[in-house]
């Protein structure tokens, strides 16, 4: 059973930084592509970033390019999302999810989410 557990969310001022973690169990990261999604109140869930299981491919939504960086620690089986220059519009619940093969595949497992709130 694949499990994903997010952590690292919180309240930060505009312009600040946070690093989210997604601890994965039940499978090693070289077998799973991992993505980060977010959902703000009243809005649809959107894909923010993704890292292929090979580690060779990354995806970023236009709204976060140049500000967010996805990375992983194979030894810790954890994927990170470093978020810099945060804006109030980044406020959302952030989820990590695994994909069977590609970032474009539908997610198959989800974490429970972690709240990120950016104050202006």
Tell me what you see in this structure.
The protein has 120 residues and is mainly β. The protein has no helices and eleven strands. The strands form two sheets. Strands 2, 4, 5, 6, 9, 10 and 11 form a seven-stranded mixed β-sheet that branches.
Question: Secondary-structure blueprint of this entry?
Answer:
Elements: E1 3-7, E2 10-13, E3 18-25, E4 33-39, E5 46-51, E6 58-60, E7 68-73, E8 78-83, E9 92-99, E10 107-110, E11 114-119
Parallel strand pairs: 2-11
Antiparallel strand pairs: 1-3, 3-8, 4-5, 4-9, 5-6, 7-8, 9-10, 9-11
Q: What is the tally of beta strands? A: 11
> Would you tell me the structural class of the helices and strands?
mainly beta
Mean pLDDT: 96
Question: Biggest β-sheet, characterized?
Answer: 7 strands, mixed
What is the percentage of strand-forming residues?
Answer: over 45%
How is this structure best summarized?
With 120 residues, the protein is an all-beta fold.
List keywords for this structure.
four-stranded antiparallel beta sheet, 120 residues, mainly beta, 52% strand, 0% helix, seven-stranded mixed beta sheet
């Amino acid at each position: 059973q694949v499990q994903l557990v997010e952590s690292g969310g919180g309240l930060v001022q505009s312009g600040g930084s946070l690093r989210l973690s997604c601890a994965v169990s039940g499978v090693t990261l070289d077998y799973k592509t991992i993505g980060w999604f977010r959902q703000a109140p009243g809005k649809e869930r959107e894909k923010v970033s993704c890292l292929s299981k090979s580690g060779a491919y990354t995806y970023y939504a236009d709204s976060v390019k140049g500000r967010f960086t996805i990375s992983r620690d194979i030894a810790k089986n954890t994927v990170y999302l470093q978020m810099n220059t945060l804006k109030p519009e980044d406020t959302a619940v952030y989820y990590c999810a695994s994909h069977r093969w590609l970032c474009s595949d539908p997610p198959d497992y989800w974490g429970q989410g972690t709240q990120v709130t950016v104050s202006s």
